[in-house]
């Protein structure tokens, strides 16, 4: 009996972890100016979904609080951007998507995940 309970708990935990890392969709933060502040801490970018205008340069100002090596880079694969983030400092990354769509950005291990929604 306890075996079953433990198995079910383990399964639930796995579902929660999978959901947290791959499936949760935080709500979209609309860029209110051409500079957007993003906090890098605790395994998440805050905000993690940012809406930016197409064809216009937007500065993403990353403030990295997490000193672990996991957070040292931010990579925008589809925009061919890779930037180093210094700890306890703001690090500006300028993006200028030329097409509407969703552009993922992650740390080099894909633990930190965010997306840029160009409209
Ligand atoms: Cu990482």
Commentary on this structure:
The radius of gyration is 17 Å and the shape is elongated. It has one domain: Cupredoxins -  blue copper proteins (Immunoglobulin-like, Sandwich), CATH 2.60.40.420. The mean pLDDT is 91. Strand 6 (73-76) and strand 7 (81-84) form a beta hairpin. It has a four-stranded mixed beta sheet, with no helix packed on it. It has a four-stranded mixed beta sheet with strand order 3-2-5-8, with no helix packed on it. A two-stranded antiparallel sheet has the order 6-7. It has 119 residues and is α/β, with parallel strands linked by helices. Helix content is 18%, strand content 41%. The chain contains one helix and ten strands; from the N terminus they run H-E-E-E-E-E-E-E-E-E-E. Copper (II) ion (CU) binds next to loops. Copper (II) ion (CU) binds at residues 70, 107-109, 111-112.
Mean pLDDT: 91
* Largest beta sheet: strand ordering: 1-4-10-9
Bound molecules: copper (II) ion
Residues in β-strands, percent:
35-45%
The third-level CATH topology is: Immunoglobulin-like
**How large is the radius of gyration?**
17 Å
User: In the CATH hierarchy, what is the architecture at level 2?
Assistant: Sandwich
Unreliable stretches: none
For the record, the count of structural domains works out to: 1
Shape: elongated
Short structural summary:
With 119 residues, this protein is an alpha/beta fold.
Write the layout of secondary structure elements.
Elements: H1 2-23, E1 29-30, E2 35-41, E3 44-46, E4 49-52, E5 58-64, E6 73-76, E7 81-84, E8 90-95, E9 101-106, E10 113-118
Parallel strand pairs: 1-4, 2-5, 4-10
Antiparallel strand pairs: 2-3, 5-8, 6-7, 9-10
The protein binds copper (II) ion.
Copper (II) ion binds at residues 70, 107-109, 111-112.
